[in-house]
Structures are given as structure tokens and as C-alpha cells.
């Protein structure tokens, strides 16, 4: 998989509200209605990641929010796979 350029990343994130980047990874904080919803979201995200065989760098779980980060370690940056996962998570929450 090919590493994306800064221009490609910036353009892709125009359609992904709330996702941020340092051009090495993308991350977003999701707000929930409380701890049961947060844990449910973690489980749903885990299932999507397994489906795409692409897993987060980290998931930070708090009572009513979680922050998640993705990158592609093999290219030491971002690829289309990271953006694909972000898009899938947005579909999950819409």
C-alpha cells in the first residue's frame, strides 16, 4: 500500500468531519451517552477493524467518549486503508 501525500490526506479529510491529522496518523474523539455506549462503540469499532484487518494505534476510553488513532506502520504514515476505516466508522455513527 502506498503512503499518501499531504495533499491527498488533506483532501480526504475534507469529507471526514472531526478527524485530525499530523500527516503521520489520523485521530478523532467520539462523544457518547455514557459508559455502556462507549464500550459498545469500542466493540463495534473492533469488529470493523477485524473485517478490514487494519487496527488502531490506540483507543483511549473515557466514561462518555473515546479517542481513536490510525496509521499504517509499514509505510510510517497514512494510506488509503486508514481513510477507509475512518469512513466506515463515520457510517457506523450516522
Structure description:
With 94 residues, the chain is α+β, with helices and mostly antiparallel strands. The protein has a single domain (1-6, 35-94), classed as Transcriptional coactivator/pterin dehydratase (Gyrase A, domain 2, 2-Layer Sandwich), CATH 3.30.1360.20. Helices cover 43% and strands 20% of the residues. It is built from 3 helices and 4 strands; from the N terminus they run H-E-E-H-E-E-H. It has helices at 6-13, 35-52, 80-93, and strands spanning 20-21, 26-31, 58-62, 65-70. A 4-stranded antiparallel sheet has the order 1-2-4-3, with helices on one face. A hairpin with a 4-residue loop joins strand 1 and strand 2 (26-31). The radius of gyration is 13 Å and the shape is globular. It starts with 5 loop residues before the first helix and ends with a helix.
Overall geometric form: globular
CATH topology: Gyrase A, domain 2
From the structure provided, what is the oligomeric state, counting identical versus distinct chains? single chain
Radius of gyration: 13 Å
CATH architecture: 2-Layer Sandwich
CATH superfamily: Transcriptional coactivator/pterin dehydratase
What's the total count of β strands?
Answer: 4
Strand line-up in the sheet with most strands:
1-2-4-3
Structural class: alpha+beta
CATH class: Alpha Beta
What amount of the residues lies in strands? 15-25%
Helix count equals: 3
Helicity range:
40-55%
Secondary-structure element pattern, one letter each: HEEHEEH
Sheet with most strands: 4 strands, antiparallel
Which stretches are poorly predicted, pLDDT < 50 over at least 5 residues? none
The termini sit apart by 28 Å
The domain count comes to: 1
The average pLDDT value, as a whole number, equals 95
